[in-house]
Amino acid sequence: MSYHLKAITREEHLTFVTARPSVSHMQVPAWGEVKPDWRAESLGWFDEGGHLVGTGLVLLRPLPKLKRYLAYLPEGPVIDWGAPDLEQWLEPMLAYLKSQRVFSVKMGPPVVTRRWSAEAVKAAIADPQARRLRDVEATAREPRASGIADRLRQMGWQQAEPDGEDGFAAGQPRYVFQVPFAGRSLEEVQRDLNQQWRRNIKKAEKAGVKIVQGGYEDLLAFHRLYVETAERDRFIPRPLAYFQRMWTVLRAEDADRMRLYLAHHEGEMLAAATMLTVGDHAWYSYGASASRKREVQPNNALQWRMMSDAYELGAGRYDFRGITDTLEEGNHLLGLLRFKVGTGGEAVEYLGEWDYPLSKVLHKALGLYMSRR
User: Fold this and answer.
1) Deepest in the core among 42, 130, 211, 323, taking most CB within 10 A?
2) Per its UniProt entry, which superkingdom is the organism in (predicted)?
3) Is the pLDDT confidence value at 167 over 50?
4) H-helix or E-strand spanning residue 141
């Protein structure tokens, strides 16, 4: 089978992804508008009968003065990754992007490689010999993943390893934590929460913590708390305009694409978070929490409300997004991993991000620049 690739309209793109069980929220047409520093384009793969069989949201970022572009397909493209003719999918994409003066392509195949149960992760954290999750025996392996990785290498793709101190790559997280919903009642999901989670949810309810959905006008209060969280937890916060743009463009595409949840206690906002939904996949996206009144457990109550709403929307899984790969006690992200493990879900490893240098000179120069940032 040979495939023809060309630019498609947003309407064609949205119709295709809406008909699938789920794709990444970074592969819907509206996501391109969330990133104003990039030029977004919707690509479509067509089979010999002229049917649209795959899509990709590609973000293009120009090199100053050179009119050459870095192309990025976050958590995409949306193609048949298990196909025996994978080359027939990717080679047309590279040829098209090269014609658009792209010098390097980065993509994130939505392919799961390994899974660890909550019990396995908890045991690994307690094991002083376990230093990284990647070195811990997995509970389950996806048999097709290694073959896909081998074929990508044979085609000339280069894997971007998560080599930071916390196991995060520069792009999207390779390791995430998810709570499966499919085939389970909400009561069963709640029973799988650990004792501390269930106790904290009850404590929040008894203390009078109220969880409500917010609107556009509440983004300012969310952002104030988010900046406070960034200062405490040592990360660089995004500006308010980013969240306002997210809200406007994602909800214009689908009213449930983005939601904002707020946790109040005695008139004071103590925690807030955004949730994104595409098909049967829901993501906890951004969170914020106060350092005060932690004894009333607003974060557990907030997440349980979001999980419950995601379940009611028909989600097959609730995704807590990135987790640290480092299991050492001194790691400042280990507490966040413990919080997520308490939900009884599973740690999931994806194939990671891959680069294809269409111009080796410019690709190497970009790598040197990024390493010095």
Assistant:
1) 323
2) Bacteria
3) no
4) strand 140-141
Q: Are β-strands 112-117 and 140-141 bridged in parallel, bridged antiparallel, or unpaired?
A: antiparallel
Listed residue (233, 206, 229, 200) closest to 342, CA to CA: 200
Tokens of 125: 């954290």
Helix, coil or strand: residue 6: strand
Superfamily name with CATH number, domain 4-111+353-372: Gcn5-related N-acetyltransferase (GNAT) (3.40.630.30)
Q: What is the pTM of this model?
A: 0.93
Rounded to whole angstroms, the Cα distance separating 125 from 141 reads: 20
Residue 73 identity (one-letter amino acid): L
| DSSP state letter for 136 | S
| Fold (topology level) of 112-141+165-350 | Aminopeptidase (3.40.630)
Tell me the per-residue pLDDT of 113-130, one tens digit each, with 9 for 90 and over.
999 999 999 999 999 999
Name the segment(s) of the chain with CATH classification 3.40.630.30.
4-111+353-372, 112-141+165-350
- DSSP SS3 for 236: coil
